[in-house]
Write a structure and sequence with these properties.
This protein has 255 residues and is α/β, with parallel strands linked by helices. 40% of the residues lie in helices and 17% in strands. The site of zinc ion has 5 residues, from loops.
């Protein structure tokens, strides 16, 4: 059984065939998916999906690149939706310095506010951090993010940074990048991190693994990621599936 801990099935890339695709996941061994909100609009569509499918869960939050849209009313709305039992985490939240906008101060302010929200709602966090390693870690330490726990999604930093987050009890999200020829850094992190701290994710429709790199991604591609992790760890595929399944259940506090 495979747990896709980070997907965006509300994305317009799935407009044409969403229902059929989702209906076929169970037969392919994909037995749980967490759909992740990234803007206020996608939090709404994420909630609708999680209400519709019994095996789909929701994380609600505003992505750093969308954080300029946030205001007190938006934050309050997210907070209220967190009472819904299908909402298992706050995210994706964090910092993204790859893009110029919004300015860092705006990203930081709403990152901190959403960390506060997670603490208040006693929910784990789904972190997005790109080209912002130091500021992300500084804020998470200052805010005692280890109290909430959660996942560093699409982990893109090196072993040193991995150690910091593992010491704080965070999971590392691993997806298609681990199969890329230029994915050496992530392969080293997977080798270094205990399997009990790794969760599978697609970030679909993005980041399709080899041999489907560049095409639209979906949870159906996760066996390629499982294969690569199994090879790096020197264990069989079943072990990777089983342990990462249990990790996904622990991450989102499901039983
Ligand atoms: Zn995402």
């Amino acid at each position: 059984m495979i747990f896709d801990t980070h997907a965006h099935y509300d994305d317009e890339a799935f407009q044409e065939d969403r229902e059929g695709l989702l209906a076929g996941l169970k037969d392919a061994g994909i037995c749980a998916v967490t759909n992740i909100g990234a803007s206020l609009a996608s939090c709404k569509t994420t909630l609708a999906l999680a209400e519709r499918y019994e095996w789909m869960y929701a994380a609600l939050g505003v992505h750093p690149s969308e954080s300029a849209e946030l205001d007190e009313a938006g934050l309050l709305w997210i907070k209220e939706q967190c009472n819904n039992k299908k909402v298992r985490a706050v995210g994706e939240i964090g910092l993204d310095y790859y893009w110029e906008e919004p300015e860092h101060e705006i990203q930081k302010r709403w990152f901190v506010r959403q960390l506060d929200l997670a603490r208040e709602r006693k929910l784990p966090i789904v972190i997005h951090s790109r080209d912002a390693a130091k500021d992300t870690l500084d804020i998470m330490k200052a805010e005692k993010a280890e109290d909430m726990g959660g996942v560093i999604h699409c982990f893109s930093y090196g072993k040193e940074m991995a150690r910091e987050y593992l010491n704080m009890g965070f999971f590392l999200g691993v997806g298609g990048v681990v199969t890329f020829n230029n994915g050496k850094k992530l392969k080293e992190v997977v080798e270094y991190a205990p399997l009990s701290s790794i969760v599978l994710e697609t970030d679909c429709p993005y980041l399709s693994p080899v041999p489907n790199r560049g095409k639209r991604n979906s949870s159906l591609n996760l066996p390629y990621v499982v294969d690569m992790i199994a090879r790096i760890k020197g264990v069989d595929r079943e072990t990777v599936e089983q342990v990462t399944w249990e990790n996904g259940m622990r991450l989102y506090r499901l039983s």
